[in-house]
Amino acid sequence: MYNVSKNIIKFDNSFLISDIDNFIDDLKKYGTNISVVQIDLSKVETFDNSVLAVVNSLIKKKYRFSLSEKLVAEIKIFDKLISFNEKETIVTSGFENLVIKFNDFISQIISFIVLSADIFFYSIRSIFSKSGRRKGSIYEQILLMGNNAVPIVFLLAFLIGLILSLQSAAQLRQFGANIYLVDLIVISMITEMGPMITAIIVAGRSGSAIAAEISTMQITEELDALKVMALNPLKYVVAPKMIAMTISLPILTIFANIIGIFGGFIIAVIYLELSPIVFFNRAVDVMTLSFWWQSMLKSVLFSWLIVLIGAHFGFNVKGGAEGVGKATTASVVAAIFAVIMTDALLSIIFYFDF
Amino acid sequence: MENIIEINNLVAKYDTKIILDNISLSIKKKEIFIILGSSGGGKTTLLKHIIGLIKPVSGTIDIFGQEVTKMDNDKFDDILTQIGMLFQGGALINSMKVWENVAIPLEQHTELAPNIIRDLVKQKLSLVNLEHAFNLYPSELSGGMKKRVALARAIAMDPKILFFDEPSAGLDPITALELDELILELKEKLGITLVIVTHELESIKRIADRILYLQKGKNIFVGTLEEARAESIDEIDRFFGWK
């Protein structure tokens, strides 16, 4: 506690953290006129560390103090304790930062390519030899990544087909070009929407799961434990996922294509009043094998991208639980980006028939 | 006695920081060899080098008389199948049940029939008093139980050498004592060589045949506890409270 008289702030024997707020307010009344005020702490015997910090910083600002012996001693110790250098973080300029980020990106790409090559190697080896992987693990993964994704893939493919045809039907109707709805929905579903929608859903479901699983195994030393048991994590953990995904995603895509077209069929029949037979005949005419090849090629590529990207972020996890979250998020974002990029690239290539 | 592990002039670095500075030592067959030292002294790093998780900058490591640092993976796998390792947190595969975890090495490295593997798993689990955990997942176990499952997995293949990274850390004194008794039993009955990183003074006094004391990556003492006491090295005296 203290009292203020004239320009003297005088404390009794205690100065505690609860006094600091009022004390600082009182001190502010003097503004920059530091030399006027006299702070008398000569009787203070009870104080805490925050008081030490405040008084120490005020002394450095050249406030005038009279201190008790105990305070003098404690402040000396306090000042010594805080006198080490904080480890400075290196501040870089914008351009340097850009260079560092670019280098980081390049090294990530290189490590991704190396990892991908390893995963392909071990996955292909895994097809022919059972050693180094768990019995039934491929079947288990197909159930997990393929079978369990069926309801959501079906529902979304159906809705996409429905919406796509509804929007186009209104336009086509104005020109009396109703029949071309069939071309539109068949081609766009099989070559674009089917593979892409399926891949995006599976990237969100399983790509994230792969990244989360592998990164958790990394930080809990499970991967090291596998290595010490003379097992290769790529073979034991990743290869079954790679094989399972290569099988499941194209199958899911086939179903998604058909269901999406069915969504279009409903619009055509109900809204455009096309007869089912006409729709069916036209669809068969339009649906050439090459569209299906395109669809399958895309979905196989997407399946590899999803697993490889998930594994890449999983293996390169840094830090603890927070790192797992970051790796998972990053893998989903990267996988969806890669899927859409690849889709665009392939569509251009196929369109111009390179 | 014959040397089972021999390390010569081992140097390890993380980036430019030297973690292990010219370590040379040998570990004899059927002994309990304890690695100790202050935190950040390089104990776990040394262990990871011996089991091949990290490759050294320079130096050699011989296990069973074979140089392993430049060995190709397939050959090193043969050596690994004769080694067991117990990680600090257990490192059980979380997506697999306890018995499946213990069965991993048996399924992968032997041609045994599934029912034989199940019996072997049961035997190992009984050995660590965890019969009731057979069908549980690792997440349903306490820290001490996880360690015991990990021990069961580490001895599943009847290894010749067993490595422990802080086995009794975080265990209550009674469980720690039981673990020590189990360790002594493994040595006496099965003739396993044990290499253990630990801080627990009581445990060291109970089980150690020889100790290695690492300080800031340097090997400052190798020998028995009596020898350590006789040599009166300041750091070690303080560690054991002899001074």
Secondary structure blueprint with pairings:
The complex is a heterodimer of chains A (354) and B (243).
Chain A: E1 2-5, E2 8-11, E3 14-15, H1 17-28, E4 38-41, E5 46-47, H2 49-60, E6 64-67, H3 69-81, H4 94-128, H5 137-145, H6 150-174, H7 180-219, H8 222-228, H9 233-270, H10 276-286, H11 289-315, H12 321-351
Parallel strand pairs in A: 2-4, 3-5, 4-6
Antiparallel strand pairs in A: 1-2
Helix pairs in contact in A: 2-3, 4-9, 4-11, 5-9, 6-7, 6-9, 7-9, 7-10, 7-11, 7-12, 9-11, 11-12
Chain B: E1 3-14, E2 17-28, E3 32-37, H1 43-50, E4 58-63, E5 66-67, H2 73-80, E6 83-86, H3 98-109, H4 114-127, H5 143-154, E7 161-165, H6 173-190, E8 193-197, H7 201-207, E9 210-215, E10 218-223, H8 225-231, H9 234-240
Parallel strand pairs in B: 3-8, 3-9, 6-7, 7-8
Antiparallel strand pairs in B: 1-2, 1-4, 4-5, 9-10
Helix pairs in contact in B: 3-4, 3-5, 4-5
What would your notes on this structure say?
The complex is a heterodimer of chains A (354) and B (243). In chain A, the strands form two sheets. Chain A has a four-stranded mixed beta sheet. A two-stranded parallel ribbon of chain A has the order 3-5. The model of chain A has no long low-confidence stretch (mean pLDDT 90). Chain A has two domains: 2-81, no CATH class; 96-351, no CATH class. In chain A, β1 (2-5) and β2 (8-11) form a beta hairpin. In chain A, 73% of the residues lie in helices and 6% in strands. Chain A is mainly α. Chain A has twelve helices and six strands. Chain B has 243 residues and is an alpha/beta fold. Chain B has one domain (3-240): Rossmann fold (3-Layer(aba) Sandwich). Chain B is 38% helix and 26% strand. Chain B has nine helices and ten strands. In chain B, the strands form two sheets. A six-stranded mixed beta sheet of chain B has the order 6-7-8-3-9-10, sandwiched between helices. Chain B has a four-stranded antiparallel beta sheet with strand order 2-1-4-5, covered by helices on one side. In chain B, a hairpin with a 2-residue loop joins β4 and β5. The two termini of chain B are 33 Å apart. The model of chain B has no long low-confidence stretch (mean pLDDT 88). At the A-B interface, α7 and α8 of A face α2, β6 and α3 of B.
